[in-house]
């Protein structure tokens, strides 16, 4: 029962969280916030130096520890989770947040870019799940969150590799959630809209409902304390994108054609 209480909220946590994609952007800010809230945070990404700088920023508390790794290395990730559990104890919550993005118009259609983005955004989540699900299932408890995007709701112009990879993550989470729930492990989705991070700094267009990283972390922290499958934000943009998801193809494709024409007009 004490264990149950500890797992359900973030207000007074004492557990271990494995946060992947923590060197920059949303993940970095989330790591600091979770540490401040009392979690022991194992942070993973490819950049050891950035993770060590992050751990140093939370120094004194010792609450952030660097475990560098690459999500495209499935065997490496399994070993990484074993190391985390050996050093910090059982992982109570895993947040698979890593991501890669590159806009791509038709003129630059490139299978290599699709492969790169799918390897990180989709298969990277698969590899993370393969590493963290077995110990959680064995214990009969645990929480897993995967970061997709509101851009995964429907195919969006000039974003095919990214949009498709995030649609795959959403679909994957829907597929796995019921079976995992049966095993005592919760699986949830984080679907952000536009957030100001190194990922979106490369966008040339005006991003609707763009929010700062801190606002994104506020929404995630609130979502962690609530129930429900999906944490989506910012709310107005999430509502628009959910409405878009309901539109019939004729209307949806008419709208996206207008987006393409407007984009061509600007360039
Ligand atoms: N920013 C937005 O507007 C927005 C909107 C919707 C969804 N999202 C999603 O939110 C998540 C965080 O994005 P962000 O905006 O914070 O982007 P970001 O600042 O670019 O962060 C991406 C993170 O993923 C890590 N990463 C990339 N490839 C990796 C790999 N092969 N192995 C391990 N880690 C890897 C990066 O670290 P290293 O380079 O050190 O490996 C970095 O820590 C992503 O899943 C993104 O798709 C973002």
Automatic annotation (TrEMBL):
<comment type="similarity">
    <text>Belongs to the short-chain dehydrogenases/reductases (SDR) family.</text>
</comment>
<protein>
    <submittedName>
        <fullName>Short-chain dehydrogenase</fullName>
    </submittedName>
</protein>
<dbReference type="Pfam" id="PF00106">
    <property type="entry name" value="adh_short"/>
</dbReference>
<dbReference type="GO" id="GO:0016491">
    <property type="term" value="F:oxidoreductase activity"/>
</dbReference>
<dbReference type="InterPro" id="IPR036291">
    <property type="entry name" value="NAD(P)-bd_dom_sf"/>
</dbReference>
<dbReference type="InterPro" id="IPR002347">
    <property type="entry name" value="SDR_fam"/>
</dbReference>
<keyword id="KW-0560">Oxidoreductase</keyword>
<dbReference type="GO" id="GO:0016020">
    <property type="term" value="C:membrane"/>
</dbReference>
<dbReference type="InterPro" id="IPR020904">
    <property type="entry name" value="Sc_DH/Rdtase_CS"/>
</dbReference>
């Amino acid at each position: 029962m004490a264990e149950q209480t500890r797992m359900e909220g973030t207000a007074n946590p004492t557990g271990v969280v494995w946060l992947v994609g923590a060197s920059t952007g949303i993940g970095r800010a989330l790591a600091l916030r979770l540490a401040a809230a009392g979690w022991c945070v194992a942070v993973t990404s490819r950049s050891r130096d950035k993770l060590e700088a992050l751990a140093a920023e939370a120094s004194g508390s010792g609450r952030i520890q660097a475990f560098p790794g690459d999500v495209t290395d499935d065997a490496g990730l399994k070993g990484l989770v074993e190391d985390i559990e050996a050093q910090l104890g059982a992982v109570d919550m895993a947040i698979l947040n890593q991501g890669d993005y590159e806009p791509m118009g038709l003129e630059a259609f490139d299978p290599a870019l699709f492969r790169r983005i799918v390897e990180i955004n989709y298969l990277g989540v698969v590899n993370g799940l393969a590493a963290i699900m077995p110990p959680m299932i064995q214990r009969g408890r645990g929480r897993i969150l995967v970061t997709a995007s509101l851009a995964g709701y429907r195919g969006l112009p000039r974003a095919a590799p990214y949009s498709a990879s995030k649609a795959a993550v959403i679909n994957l989470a829907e597929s796995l959630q019921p079976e995992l729930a049966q095993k005592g492990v919760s699986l949830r989705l984080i679907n952000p809209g536009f957030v100001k991070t190194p990922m979106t700094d490369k966008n040339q267009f005006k991003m609707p409902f763009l929010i700062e990283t801190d606002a994104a972390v506020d929404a995630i922290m609130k979502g962690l304390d609530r129930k429900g499958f999906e944490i989506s934000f910012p709310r107005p943009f999430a509502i628009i994108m959910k409405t878009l998801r309901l539109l019939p193809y004729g209307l949806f494709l008419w709208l996206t054609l207008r987006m393409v024409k407007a984009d061509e007009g600007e360039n």
